[in-house]
């Protein structure tokens, strides 16, 4: 199997199924997490993964290598998610009304017991809080803090500036902190 990205792309262009398999194994779960986070629908997320890899098969010959293949796949998946969100009658994709979120609750997270922070219940609460973020904030948060892409990689994947990635990540983290503050305050007092 090819060991460099260029060799992998060349193998894909030669229609080598093993190359597609390597990319699928590497990125399918990551793309699914991005899509599930944005769409909040497992069936739709599966569709995004499928359409992303179909696009790869159909358009690999046009891939120029200006970004790495993972960034390209994230971009395709993100665009597919946005298309699906726009089809929803209640889609909320306008950021014009977003003001910086200033937390109303201030919790000293360092004083919380590790067992409380790492519990399954806390993880489920975090998932619910992430799901309540606007799609643009969820996408940036997922790529930066869950998938651990760099700011530059996230910007390329989403087709936005690095500055906007930083702003959205800041807003996402503040919103999550605000949402989780009451949850942890209640449990810390017990």
Q: Can you put this structure into words, describing what you see?
A:
The structure is a single chain. The radius of gyration is 19 Å and the shape is elongated. It has 190 residues and is mostly helical. The protein folds into 2 domains: 5-87, Rna Polymerase Sigma Factor, Chain: A, CATH 1.10.1740.10; 109-188, Winged helix-like DNA-binding domain superfamily/Winged helix DNA-binding domain (Arc Repressor Mutant, subunit A), CATH 1.10.10.10. 70% of the residues lie in helices and 0% in strands. The termini are far apart.
Secondary-structure content class = mainly alpha
CATH architecture assignment of the largest domain: Orthogonal Bundle
Tell me the major beta sheet: none
Number of domains: 2
Strand fraction band? Answer: under 5%
Count the helices. How many?
Answer: 9
The CATH homology group name of the largest domain: RNA polymerase sigma factor, region 2, helix turn helix motif
Average per-residue pLDDT, rounded, comes to 82
Radius of gyration: 19 Å
- Helix-residue proportion: over 70%
Q: From the 3D structure, determine the CATH topology of the largest domain.
A: Rna Polymerase Sigma Factor, Chain: A
Strand count: 0
| Dominant shape | elongated
Straight-line N-to-C gap: 55 Å
What is the top-level CATH class of the largest domain? Mainly Alpha
Low-pLDDT regions: 92-102
